[in-house]
Design goal:
about 325 residues, alpha+beta, Immunoglobulin-like, five-stranded mixed sheet, about 35% strand
């Protein structure tokens, strides 16, 4: 009778002794014309990747080198050029990555400045944030809030969910509404969110930016009215139209009054002319009356003499 003896298969699992990955530089502050030299320790004969990113997070240098047999390495990353838009002053990060040590990486921050002072200059990253909101809006109208984040004068940040994770708005009734999930990326370091106010009052938007251990705050206030400036502008335009029509009517009335004034002046002139004519007629009548009187009285005297003579003759004839 045969018995099957169990066979034990021993698998040899390789054990890798991960070494620490170290990096350092000859200085922490550099000026134009100076070489940026990094050195450190890794696995012997290991291929490592050296990557440098600028203040805005973009990659400015990428290379791969092999360490010495003892694991040491030294590498000139670049010679610092004159500062330009693509290479501004600020804090740069050098990162080394090991493909043979489970993706182990180390980083080092250095600063590119106008002068490499002998006094040690602290290397730091500061996040700055600005928020823009309209001064006025209307109830139930969508308003847009913009947020800008910079570091060392450059726009930074691509994920508003992480960068602006605690941004909120203070409502007129004192409650707080979280709007961190409402932001969209317009451009690197530039984000926007749309918000619809439901009641009148003052809304205070409070943006909080957090990046690489530093934080920045900013606030902007919007006064929400029952209607927006556009509606008020339409009412003003309508009022201007009514005033223009009223002004036209007043101009017509003014023209009619001026015409009536001319008519009155003409009538007054005619009356004055008639009065003058009547005065001349009265003067003529008075002159004619004087002439008549000058003729009438002598005739009457002669007639009186004739009558007296006749009476005298008749009296004599009777005797």
């Amino acid at each position: 009778m045969r018995y099957a003896m169990p066979m034990m298969l021993l698998l040899a699992i390789p054990c890798a002794a991960y070494a620490d990955l170290d990096i350092a530089s000859t200085s922490r502050v550099y000026a134009s014309g100076q070489p940026l030299v990094v050195f450190g320790q890794a696995e012997p004969g290991e291929d490592i990747i050296i990557r440098m990113t600028g203040p805005d997070g973009t990659i400015t240098k990428f290379d791969q080198i092999t360490t010495n047999p003892d694991g040491s390495f030294q590498y000139t990353v670049l010679v610092w050029p004159e500062a330009t838009v693509s290479f501004p002053y600020g804090t740069y990060t050098i990162e080394i990555l090991s493909a043979e040590q489970g993706g182990l990486s180390r980083t080092l921050d250095v600063r590119f400045a106008q002068t490499a002072e002998l006094v040690e200059t602290p290397v730091s990253r500061t996040i700055n944030m600005l928020i823009f909101a309209p001064e006025t809006s209307a109830v139930n109208n969508t308003l847009r809030v913009f947020v800008q984040t910079t570091s060392d004068g450059l726009l930074v940040g691509n994920d508003p969910g992480q960068l602006l994770g605690t941004t909120h708005v203070h409502l007129p009734d004192g409650t707080v509404h979280d709007i961190s999930d409402s932001f969209n990326t317009l451009h690197q370091g530039l984000f926007y969110a749309d918000y619809v106010p439901r009641t009148e009052g003052t809304y205070v938007f409070h943006a909080v930016a957090f990046s690489q251990g530093t934080i920045s705050h900013g606030s902007a206030a919007t006064t929400v009215l029952s209607q927006d400036i556009g509606g008020i502008s339409d009412q003003i335009i309508l009022l201007n139209e009514v005033l223009a029509a009223t002004s036209a009517e007043l101009d017509g009335l003014k023209a009619e009054v001026a015409e009536f004034k001319d008519t009155l002046q003409q009538a007054s002139g005619n009356i004055n002319a008639s009065v003058g004519s009547m005065s001349a007629s009265v003067t003529n009548i008075e002159g004619a009356s004087s002439q008549l009187n000058s003729l009438f009285f002598p005739v009457m005297a002669i007639m009186g003499v004739l009558v007296a003579t006749q009476i005298a003759i008749l009296a004599r004839s009777r005797h």
